[in-house]
Write a structure and sequence with these properties.
Largest sheet: 7 strands, mixed
Radius of gyration: 17 Å
Strand order of the largest sheet: 2-1-3-4-5-6-7
Structural class: alpha/beta
Number of strands: 7
Low-confidence stretches: none
Mean pLDDT: 94
Order of helices and strands: EHEHEHEEEEHH
Distance between the termini: 11 Å
Length: 192
């Protein structure tokens, strides 16, 4: 059995990845072992950060290692929070409130945004595979829904007229940027 280490300490992200990848023949999907020092995310793009993390964590484990970097980019905020999505405020609720406060007065036509996800797969510090995906949407006027995590309660998907937090896991894995990127990873892993 081959082992894929998922390089995250974010429980929500780990659950989404495991759900999206499902049962992969000959693969076990394992969390990052405890005690591995983290790495500072200094990349200027989501892909650069995913690569940094994949290379770093794959040197600490003897298996293929998957790293993700993802976030929200709001056009009216010149792409912020962007690669700083997870550090835009002290906690998820404060991050959501900051975005809502910063675009509070904007009309629907100026509330467009996109979720981005980059995945990188590495072994022994070398990148094996990578992908980037994005999903366009809008920032809702207020949080809605109890599912998901991060900015999901304010990211409105126009095709279903619901926020990411109002979707079940199957719907989110089908419609989200991470879900689309993981579908590509699944195809790649099934050939290995």
């Amino acid at each position: 059995m081959k082992r894929l280490v998922i390089a995250t300490t974010n429980a929500g992200k780990l659950n989404e990845i495991r759900s999206a990848l499902g049962e992969l023949r000959n693969w076990s999907l394992d969390p990052l072992p405890p005690g591995i020092p983290s790495i500072e995310e200094t990349g200027e793009t989501f892909l650069a950060n995913a690569i940094l993390k994949a290379e770093h964590y794959s040197e600490a484990v003897d298996d293929w290692t998957l790293a993700d970097d993802s976030g929200l980019c709001v056009a009216a905020l010149e792409g912020r929070p962007g690669v700083h999505s997870g550090r835009y405020a002290d906690n998820p609720a404060a991050r959501i409130q900051r975005v809502l406060r910063e675009i509070d007065a904007l009309p629907n036509a100026r509330r467009d945004a996109a979720f981005y996800c980059a995945l990188a797969l590495a072994q022994h510090g070398k990148i094996i595979w990578s992908v980037q995906c994005e999903v366009p949407g809008f920032i809702a006027y207020a949080p809605s829904g109890t599912g998901g995590f991060g900015y999901d309660p304010i990211f409105l998907l126009p095709e279903v007229n619901r926020t990411m937090a109002e979707l079940n896991m199957e719907q989110k894995n089908r419609l989200s940027a991470r879900g689309k990127a993981l579908a590509e990873l699944r195809k790649f892993l099934l050939t290995r």
